[in-house]
Description:
Blueprint: H1 2-25, E1 29-34, H2 42-57, E2 61-66, H3 69-78, E3 85-86, E4 89-90, H4 94-117, E5 122-126, E6 133-140, E7 143-154, H5 157-164, E8 168-172, E9 174-176, E10 182-184, H6 187-197, E11 202-207, E12 212-213, E13 222-223, E14 225-227, H7 228-236, H8 244-256, E15 261-266, H9 272-278, E16 285-288, H10 290-293
Parallel strand pairs: 1-2, 1-11, 2-8, 5-8, 11-15, 14-16
Antiparallel strand pairs: 3-4, 6-7, 9-10, 12-13, 15-16
Helix pairs in contact: 3-4, 6-8, 7-8
Amino acid sequence: MEKDMEQVMKKAEVLIEALPYIQKFNRKIIVVKYGGSAMSNEELQKNVIKDVTLLKLVGFKPIIVHGGGKEISRWVGKVGKEAKFINGLRVTDEETMEIAEMVLNKVNKSLVTMVEELGVKAVGVSGKDGGLLQVEKKYSDGQDIGYVGEITGVNPDILFDMLEKDYLPIIAPIGLDKDYHTYNINADDAACAIAKAVHAEKLAFLTDIEGLYKDINDKSTFISRLTASEAEGLIHDGYIGGGMLPKLNNCTSAIRNGVNRVHILDGRLAHCLLLEIFTNQGIGTAIVSDEEEK
Ligand SMILES: Nc1ncnc2c1ncn2[C@@H]1O[C@H](COP(=O)(O)OP(=O)(O)O)[C@@H](O)[C@H]1O
Ligand SMILES: CC(=O)N[C@@H](CCC(=O)OP(=O)(O)O)C(=O)O
């Protein structure tokens, strides 16, 4: 009986600890970039979706921008092609673009369904809808990488309308150029551009690693907090590779453009978002402005 009471009190303490954070973020926009690497199974996905839904229900305004890179590669493989990346970006020919759009739309609707199952209204769109993500062709170090879009403009009106009506927006990273051709956008780029356009309070990248390492092969080099300038230094000195490269570039860009807090979190860890937002635990890697560190 005493034990039961102790547990109940612990639960109350957890809720009380969350109170200042609930106040701080009340009605503030939080952009959650949910990467394909942390979508490996349905249970994992349901945990992430539960967290975001809870944020919505306690008065935050979350927006999900999702990836699906691993799933796209799986389908590209099924048609006998080899997935190819340059600097973390998928080389996207016409056929790959068609596959990527189909897969991302499928991922989008599956996330919408999970949110709706939890009793929250969600709307899934891509960057094509309402002129949300406008792009031009992107080159990687001068190389032609096909239908990969560089974001040139964001029209967040459709997002503000959804938030106003209390919908949870879920966005697939696809955009249109000025001639209405379809382009594949790196989901980290999409999340960052959207966070900037809606003046998000926070941008959280959920991925499949604990956070940032100076040397990915040496676990003792984990970085829990760094400034935008330090992050740029690591990129410049060649410490960062693969999919972490666009992610970290976007982290620094978001911080330099008015997003207050940027985090890289391990989406494989159950409830990592709740832990980061509602506790003093400080998990993952936080990227802060140079001024804040002074
Ligand atoms: N210095 C680094 N620190 C952390 N991860 C790194 C680093 N360099 C490369 N990576 C790689 O970046 C990956 C995360 O990017 P990515 O696979 O694109 O994830 P997502 O699908 O979530 O965008 C990690 O799994 C890791 O292998
Ligand atoms: C141009 C480009 O690379 N687009 C990405 C879009 C999906 C994505 O970014 O998914 P993750 O967040 O899971 O990596 C791709 O085709 O894989």
